Each structure stands twice: as structure tokens, then as C-alpha cells.
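Aim 2, interim progress. The first record below pairs a target sequence with its C-alpha cells.
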Amino acid sequence: MELNLSCPPEKKKPDSGNRLTVLLLVLVAIVILFQTSLWISGFYTGPSALPRAITPRGDLALEEKTTIELFQKVSPSAVYITSLTVQREWFSLKATAIPRGTGSGFVWDDQGTIITNFHVISGGQGAQVTLSDQSSWPAQVVGVEPDKDLAVLHIDAPRELLKPIALGTSNNLLVGQKVFVIGNPFGLDQTLTTGVISGLGREIQSESGRPIAGVIQTDAAINPGNSGGPMLDSAGRLIGINTAIVSPSGAYAGVGFAVPVDVVNRVVPQIVKYGRAKKAGLGITMVDDNVVRRLGVAGVLVYQVIPGSGAHKAGIEPPRIDQRGRILQADLIVACDKVPVKTQNDLFRVLDQYDIGDTVQVQIQRNSETIDMNVVLQEIGE
């Protein structure tokens, strides 16, 4: 029997240097985790977390100062308009006024006269006007002129809250002039946009279908809700009422239109005084343009002549038709004030330049005869 007298191998003692290294790594990890938690919780105040010093700006540019002063001066004249409709509860039949649409407008005088577009309030059963101090007032419709897309409202607000807008003129505007628009696009009240006059003498169609001539075109941003608001020149004077845009999407596309202030200043006093606009006309009714085109002629075909009117006194006659419905004689207006007339809108463009009592030369084709007549214009559209 052999005895193994060899000694068992000794166990190695842990290296103290390795233990120290592990301990240091653990401490570093704890410090990093602690600082990270402080940074996440917002308590870390290292040098990079302190606010930076503000760089002095210096004075505002002269153009900026001018724009700011203009807005501060004119914005109290701009108003926010809400068109209302009446909704009745199903069981109690209680009537409640609810918003139908929104638009813009401006203060015309300190008597509470407010101007906006006709299409802003059209179809509504009431309106509410919010002034720049955010006070709201129920509005009454004084009168409208759909042919010019104008509406006149009245509110019973204290005079100290009413800041009438300064009026300019639109007969000496130039393409390239700077313009300023204040309104409520998408319900964002007291919004200022700027641009230039892009074109003059444009034409748009009114709510009634008649053309509005001499319209101002601008690239200032005009969006839904700007309708009825003021377009201003660099002196802060009203030069137009924002009315329409051309846009495939229905939003701003760089082409907006405003009814000239000279039209506004002529029509509004009539509405305030009479409750409607007094328009000059010949004193006739006309055959629809589509019917005239089917007859193969160009011009305005007279359908009826109002007895005692300027047209009647000048000798314009209604059609003569035999028992079989054949036209024996008809008066076709082919020119007015020496301007060719092919459609009713052509005639309206000419007549819109004249007042009641003015005389215009009307050229008539009666069968194969051409006749010039002087017609004294009378009031129409009562």
C-alpha cells in the first residue's frame, strides 16, 4: 500500500489590487448615475445650464416702427363680426342664436355704424360685433348692397369705444404701393398682414351676379375671415374692403381683391340715409343673356320699358310680337356712352359710373336701323 505524502495545493488569496479597481469602478458608476438623475430631474446646475447673456438689439428699423405705429393707430377701428343663425330646441321651441360664420369689418363713425361685406352676413338671422377691447354688441342690419358686396350694421356701443377709421381715396393708387390688411383670418382677431398693390382695375363678380369693376388686387395675405376688413395705405387710411381671394384650396394663394374705398364712400352714406343704395338705370328690364345668345345676336335686348322712365321718354320700345310669337320689332342696345355692349354686365359697368339724373347716349339697333338716343338715368332697384 502506497502512501501519498505530497501536500495538497494551496488556495490563492484574492489580489487586493483587483478589489480596489472594482471598488473604484463601482464608485464612479454611482457618481455618474447620481449626476444623471440630478440632470434629468432639473437639479443639476452646471455652467452650461445657466441662461446666456442677452445681446443688445439696438433700435427697430424705421420700416418696423412705421408698421407698429400704424397697427396701434388703426387696430381699434377693426372689428370681428359673427353671423348668427337661430336654432330652436326640439321640445320647448326655445330659440337660441348660434354662430354661423365669421368675418371682419371696421368702425365707420362714432354713431355705431359698422361696415362689412354683404356675404359675411348673408343668410344669417343676426350678427354680433366684437370691438378691439373684446366687448361684444348685438348688431342691426341698416341696409345692404349686394351688387357691391357691402353691408352696413349698427351697434349701440358707447362713443368712447368707437374709433372711426380714417378714409383715403382709391382714384390715385399705384401698382407697387405698400398695403396693410387687418382682419380675423380663421377667427384669429386683430391679425396684421402686409403686401403691395399687385394690380388695379380688376373685376370680380358680386353675390348678386353683377360685376364689381375697378377692384384692387393685392398679394397681402387674405384668408377666410378677412372678408369685410380694411385695406390700408401706408398712412393708415382706408383704401379698400377685403372681399375675395383666388385660391384652388380656399386659403391664401397670393391673389386677393378689395372693393375700392371710393365706391364704399359713395354707397354707404346712401344706405345710412335711405336703408339702401340708390342706383341709376335706364328704366328697362332685359332679356336674359342666354336667350339673346341663342337668337344669334350680341347686345342687350329690351324686354319691358317702364312707363315714364328715361328710356320711355327717349323712345326706347319693348318688342312687338305677332299672334304666332314671332318678333316683328325689337330694340337691341349695342353701345352705351360709346362703349360697346354685348352683355348685361357690359351695360352695368358703364351705368355704374353715373348718378341719377345724368344723361347717357344709348345706341340701339332696331331691326336694320341704328339709332342713338340720349337717356336721362333714373333711380332703380327700389
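The second target in this work package is listed in the same format:
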Amino acid sequence: MSHGTYDSFWQERNLLPHIRAITPAVMVVGGLFDAEDLYGPLSFYTMMKKESPGTPCSLILGPWQHGGWARTPGSSLGDVEFGGKTSIYYRDSVEFPFFNFYLKREGEAPLPTPLVFETGSNRWMRYVQWPPSGAAETSFYFRERGVLSVEPPPGKNGYDEYVSDPARPVPYTNVVSILRGVTYVVEDQRFASRRPDVLTFETAPLERALTAAGPVGAELHVSMTGTDADFIVKVIDVFPDTTIGGHASEGGLGAGYQMLVRAEVMRGKFRNSMSVPEPFVPGKVTPVRFQLRDISHTFLPGHRVMVQVQSSWFPLVDRNPQSFVDIYRAGEGDFRKETERIYHAAGAASRVILNVLR
């Protein structure tokens, strides 16, 4: 709490500069729904490929919670099913052959290429590199009346707004529990869609499958009545509104289920630097750009791509007082209601960027 910015205290604890000239073969394993640390395996793998290019290095990403590849069968997470025991497959067909070869020199050398599970379609994909080559950065723009479109907004004055009240923050889950839990990362987001302080944008039903693989970018153009705010961006797979033959839709999920695929928070004062925070100027349109962690997901035909934007995610993220202060020492009077505007206009086109593979 004495180091609320990315100062020397944190910089000295950054492991990435030390990941160089690694000689043993490495297999980096991570969970696509790891609530604790998806940043770690992705960053480690990227640094390994850059600083130790001659060392065999594999990246394995499965549909798992933190450690789920070792502690669970990997057949489901919360209400979302993955079509098989993915962790058993990993342990038997990926992990065991890796150690069998590099510790005993038995069997064949494992391919040092990314093996990533694709949720939605529920299949393992082998790539030459990660993020996959051939993926095209595709912008999904916020439009009027809650539309999400690959076409940029034509007008010059479009925006949506909401009142963010620290006394009534948006919860990160609809589950009542004394524990944080791990299933909120795939939880149905309809409880959030119904709130007036959550903006929702969605595409029309997809005519064909859309697969996104790799990092997700967010570019918001915002203004506010105060001097600081958080912005949470969520990418969601919306299942069809109607069921087939009266039964639940694919994966065992009900009609209209809004499956959270990825979400991330940007504390606004760190929008330009994690070391040097900056206040917002009230009423001034300001860009806020940040990255969400990588995804590997197929939005099936008939589904919709949804993006939600909000300014609290409580108590997963501590409340922003919405005034430019040291939050760890904020007093009661520092917490204020604030009106947030998210712009969808020419020259201020808020959007998310997906790496669309097919």
C-alpha cells in the first residue's frame, strides 16, 4: 500500500528481465480461465521465444482455472462444458511424453509449438506460433442503440453515458459467497446487463462462426464529470435466444446465456503510465487504451459478440473514489458519484480489437 504505482519496489520484483539464456527445454502451461495468473504464462512464453530462441519451448493453454490442469478433470468450469476431460488428455498425452523424453530420453521429442484449446468449438488447436499467424486484427466498434459493428460510427457526436456510484458498485458475480470463487470468469453476465451503470453493445446474430485467437485490445474514448475512473471491458459470447427442440443450447447452457470470455480493468489514472498517474480533465474527451489477456474462442453461428463497459467490479477490484487521490488513503469525502460518457463518434470511435483467425 506504500507503493501504489509501478515504482522501484515493483520493478525490482519483475521476473521478465531475468528470463534469458534459458537452456533446459521448457513447457509453459496456463489456464485460459485462470483467475489468478494468465499474464504469467503468456508473458513468460513471449520472453522465452525472444531471449532463448534456440531452446525448445512449448505453450499449452487449456480451458482451466488456476492449476486446473493438475487438480481437475477439465471437463467443465461452472456451467460451461468443454466436451471432454481436457486435463486428463493434457496429463496423459502432453505432460507425460514431455517428461518421459527430456528426463528419460524415451519416446519422441514433443513438438515445441503452441497447443491451445479453442472454447466454443471445444477442440485442441496446434499452431506454429502464438499468437497465431494469419489472424487479422478486426475492430468491433460501439455504435448507437447498443450496436457492435465492424463498421465505424459515421456521426461526430455520438455517446452513451451512465452514472457510476462508488456506494453502489457493480458486483463481479451474481453468486452470494464469502469466497471469491473461480467460476466468475465464465459466468452469465445477464445480471450486469440489467444495470443502468453497465453499457452493453452487441452484434447481430452471426451468420458464420467467428474465431478469435490472441490478445484483445480495448480503445475507449471517454469523458467524465470527475478526475478519475476505472474502466472494465468485458468480451461476452451471447447464446441464441431460443433453444432447439425445447432443450438447452449447446454446452448445456440455457438460451440467452451471456458467457464471459474475457474481462480486464484499467484504472484510468494509469492509462499512459503505471508509474506516473495522471488525473482526467472533467468534460475532456480522452482516449483510454489497454489490453485484455489472450483468448482462444469460437463464437458459433447464431451467437452474438457482446461487449460490456462499466466502472466498478466489486469487490474483485477495489472501488475507485472517482477523484484523483491516493486510493489507499482516501477518506469518505473522496468517494463521489460521477457521470461517465463513452463515445462512439468519428474521431472518437470506441472499440475492441479481436485477432480474428477465421
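Residues 148 and 203 are 5 Å apart (CA to CA). This observation will shape the mutagenesis plan for the next reporting period.
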